[in-house]
Amino acid sequence: MLVKCICKVYMQNVYAFNYALFANLTTSQRASPASTFYEQLSKLSLMSSKEFFTDRYRKLGWKYHTVELKKTIRINSANVKKPPDLVKRLQDLGLVLTKVPFLKTGYWVEESRFSAGATTAYLSGLYSIQEAAAQIPATLFTELKDKTVLDACAAPGGKTTQLADLMRNTGAIVALDINRQRLTALSNQLERCQIKNTIVYQLDARRVSQLETSYDRILLDMPCSGNFATDRNWFKRRTIKDVKRNAALQREILTETVKMLENDGEIIYSTCSLEPEENELNIDWAIRSLNMKVEKISGYGQEGLTEVFGKHLDGSVRNCMRIWPGQTQGFFVCKLLKSESA
Amino acid sequence: MKPIDDFVSLFGASISLDESLIVKKSSRYFLLSASLKKLTLKDFFYAGAYLGKVKNGRFFPGFELLRMMAEKKANRVVVNMKTEWLFICGRDVFKRGIVKVTGPGRKGDHVLVLNCHGECLGFGRVVSDLGREEESVVIKNISDIGDFLRREARTR
Fold first, then answer.
1. Is the Cβ of B135 closer than 8 Å to some Cβ of chain A?
2. I need a surface site. Which of A66, A320, B36, B84 has the fewest CB within 10 A?
3. pLDDT-derived band of residue B131, with 50, 70 and 90 as boundaries?
4. 3-state class (DSSP) for residue B120
């Protein structure tokens, strides 16, 4: 009984507190521009609700809806002489596959009687399981053979093995990650996929200069807030504070890795976040602060946003590619080059 | 590299690796390419092709080494589809699951186990002469590629 009473009083206080916050915010919203409003919300730690984020998406031009993602595989071309034969072999086993129209080696698993990761072909490295949008970044580099490539946030290794596959095991990939357990997973992927051109270091990407190497190509698949399409508890888990923290980390990584890029080099920047702070706003910042330029990429997805919550961004940010969840998870990707004045 | 050469010879084969490109990290051996070697610092986590490790004086091969051996004339058996999956699940090989034998196949020999696509599934030790009529287990599983799934489960 006592416990019940305590709970009741506690809950009444919580409601009262939340009401006070709401009233405060609503007043602020009327009085302040959007950015001030969001900053204030952040301070009050209320910015984690589904409504909050879906409202942001609406303001960015996308109406929230739930999505069901299909499992996607990627054929490791270097290990498969005739991809159609492998597709037939997997279909004979009971995997129903359809080609992903915007990927050269990607197939959606429409139906399967067993896990796509439980076949001899998978264990022999003939294909990998990799979400469709996540297969895009590595394909955006021009010419990878014999290049020195940095994969700055490499684990668990889906994109690293894809890069190695595109390079046909030539040149060299330097793959970094900070987490030892994730590096073990990465190493297992490399061994399974028969990758021979990669060296893995346990190193924070922000300390990449320690390796004293410059790179022709840099893949920055950034640590990010993720998106609801791949995490059913995403809205419960995430707050705007996480988004801002990740955005700051991404800027630090970008700043340090750009220093190691050859003058004619390319950076592919990607996140699986829908939040503009981690995407367009960071790229706009890189153009202004790091003297980078955004090269036009085309393919599946929409142009990058050039107006975010009332803020006008550099026009070239539209050269980025934003993918709202649907056939794939949410994703953002762009190609950065050093501008001539850099 | 003696541990590697000794292991490969168990299969009646030999492979020649450029020793200048082999690096040993703790007890693990890696084969690098020339371009990779230039970038290799002392404290790497993984590099090039993993050849295997020595533990308690015994050599445990990486699957890349087994694949390289499969391209040479190493002793081997080819198994049928049902046995292929059982072997990957860590099971031993029965005589009736073997489609083809290359090499003497004597008791005590080591053999690679391949599927009908020529993919190396792992290796085992012959526990009963492969030429004899036998209904029981003839190859004891020592290592198989199902280990990748077991490792995934451990690192998840």
1. no
2. A66
3. confident
4. strand
For chains A and B, CB pairs below 8 A equal 95
Q: Are B99 and B82 in contact (CB under 8 A)?
A: no
d(CA A281, CA B18): 49
Cα gap A37→B24, rounded to integer Å: 57
End residue of a domain, out of B37, B69, B101: B69
Residue A214 CA to residue A54 CA, distance in Å, equals: 41
Return the closest-CA partner of residue B68 out of B29, B25, B104, B24: B29
Q: What is the DSSP pairing of strand A106-112 with strand A95-99?
A: antiparallel
What's the CATH architecture for A134-338? 3-Layer(aba) Sandwich (3.40)
Chain A residues within an 8 Å CB radius of B53: none
Contact B48 A194 (CB under 8 A): no
Q: Which residues of chain A have pLDDT under 50?
A: 1-32
pLDDT band at B132 (very low <50, low <70, confident <90, very high): confident
Question: What is the structure's pLDDT at A40?
Answer: 58
pLDDT tens, B115-128? 999 999 999 999 99
CA distances from A197 to A128, A179, B43 (A): 18, 21, 17
pTM: 0.89
B81 and B38 both lie in a single domain: no
Among candidate residues A116, A79, A338, the one with its CA nearest the CA of residue A214: A338
pLDDT tens digits along A299-342: 899 999 999 999 999 999 999 999 999 999 999 999 999 987 65
In chain B, how many domains are there?
A: 2
Q: Give the 3-state secondary structure of B17-70.
A: CCHHHEEEECCEEEECCHHHHCCCCCCCCEECEEEEEEECCEEEECHHHHHHHH
Exposure b/e, A256-292, CB count within 10 A at least 16 = b: bbbebbeeebbbbbbbbbbbbbbbbbbbbbbbeebeb
Q: Which residue of B has its CA nearest to A193?
A: B64
> A71-132: which CATH architecture?
2-Layer Sandwich (3.30)
* Closest by Cβ to B46, choosing from A146, A187, A213: A187
Query: Looking at the predicted structure, is the pLDDT value of residue B21 above 70?
Result: yes
What pLDDT sits at residue A153?
97
The complex's ipTM works out to 0.96
Shortest CA gap A299–chain B (Å): 33
Cα–Cα distances in Å, from A51 out to A47, A57, A262, B24?
9, 10, 44, 55
Domain housing B21: 2-69
